Amino acid sequence: MRVLVTGAAGSMGRVVTVGLVDLGHDVVGLDLVPAPEGTTFTWHEADCADADAVAAVFAEERLDAVVHLAGVPEEVSLPDELTSHVVTTAALLDAMVAHDVPRLVYASSNHAVGRTPRADGELTEHVPPRPDTYYGVAKVAAEALMRLFAERHGIDAVACRIGSFLEEPTSTRALSTWLSHGDGVRMVEAALTAPAPGYAVLHGISANTRAWWDLEPGRRLGYEPQDDAEDHADRVEPGPDDEAEAEFVGGPFATAQFHRPA
Ligand code: 15L
């Protein structure tokens, strides 16, 4: 498949692009910054919030799918969150419709449902939107756009509600929410190749012993995680906020330190 990866120079993009090339895909990178040294695939330096710039990339490349990883990975202002996650997703979806690109895999986030209490039991993909921050609000809106384009235009659109994408788990919470680098690539590959998923949601975590987010939605799409944060548990120190962070899906983002006016 010829796959456009946005945010290709980001922490996830750097891992996923290499993984997809290793799996035999023809990768086209897109980022605000130039290609990292040693990049062997096609690269576009562009802002995917700029619809004209996105349209120009699609006009030049013949794409089969888009993996949208670009976006600020943390809490900033509401307008910046909306630009970073919603405006970019809309620009990509419009270009996909215009150029008959049938599939979008999106790095959504657990923070779209981050205010879901742990006390509610296992987290399913059917919980209502419960963002914990403006970052989460923007992820909810981006998922809504994906659903709109799936239902209106028949685009296959997989929203991966990612946990903590890290080389190794670094906190008690991450022992539940970790997504290893290898599983991150496996997750994207499954979301790219699952037959006719329509609009679908999966939980982007590894097969963690302490996981409490349902892995079945991913398994139905062919995502079989191989790693377990428990293998690293002896290197994780308990933290002062562990108890507060365990209360909601979104961990620290769901605590009072993230409250602020819009
Ligand atoms: C995310 O979606 C964020 O991008 C990242 O910064 C972490 O907060 C991660 O979720 C997480 O929940 O650990």
From TrEMBL:
Keywords: NAD, Oxidoreductase. SUPFAM superfamilies: NAD(P)-binding Rossmann-fold domains. CDD domains: SDR_e. Residues 222-254 are annotated as: Disordered. Gene3D superfamilies: NAD(P)-binding Rossmann-like Domain. Residues 3-164 form the NAD-dependent epimerase/dehydratase domain. Belongs to the NAD(P)-dependent epimerase/dehydratase family. This is NAD(P)-dependent oxidoreductase. It comes from Nocardioides renjunii.
